[in-house]
Amino acid sequence: MTAELPPAALDLVRHFEGLYLKAYLCPAGVPTIGYGHTAGVRMGQTITSLQAEVFLRADMDAAARDVDRLVKVPLTDRQRGALASFVFNLGAGALQTSTLLRLLNQRDYAGAAGQFGRWIYATVNGEKVELEGLKKRRTAEKALFLKE
Question: Residue 46's domain spans which residues?
């Protein structure tokens, strides 16, 4: 059994994803509901806030399992939670191929923390753009990662 995610990690995702009880298309055109949940979502679908919370916890648990699989060094609960938020938002593939993970697995925790700020871009209309929301999210993830 893996450690439970700290409440601060779940709060971070709740804050940055927002709660939507009716399915919508995210900027990437993917049907999304709850706190950023996408698996099996259909347009027109509605859920309760309780179901949104169930989806969030399942999605974050899956992201944490990806973190556990990829990270080969000890992590605090907060570091694991920050990385689970990162994976929840970007996918395990982004972490797997990142300099952040390479530095972390070399036990360069400070260097890894410094990498969060590089993940602030999204492709909008075929163009790579810096998003203010991603800057704020990465800053919050880095702060959680560095918190004692």
Answer: 7-146
